[in-house]
Amino acid sequence: MRAEQIVQCALxxxxxxxxxxxxxxxxxxxxxxxxxxxxxxxxxxxxxxxxRALARAVLELLDLAEHDVPRGDLFRVLAAAxxxxxxxxxxxxxxxxxxxxxxxVVAGQHWDTxxxxxxxxxxxxxxxxxxxxxxxxxxxTASACIRAT
Length: 149
What we know:
Blueprint lengths: L2 H12 L8 H14 L16 H13 L5 H9 L13 H11 L6 H15 L2 H22 L1
């Protein structure tokens, strides 16, 4: 084959389409075979939105707003998906969870009232109390990691 023919074949394939009559089972099979062949697919995905971690997290976060954003539920949702800050870094879920627990946040108005008091509360702690709180948090984290394994 000459180079011109190869380019022509490639253009015809790029401009072509693969169609199927029903999403089940053809869409998933088609995506799997094309991926195995190293061919990029442009089109709707084969998994429903609610099966995707980030989409599910957004839906659950919206639902939490109707229930006063319980702390435990919020951090369960944030830990289940790769949520990022506005700067693009991963959300430090465990750190945020520890700080909110230290502040005594449960739900609702606690997010504003108790978190706003946290800096003053930490500043007024003695160095020994700060060290003890940090050690207690490390121990709880280590204990949770051991239970999870």
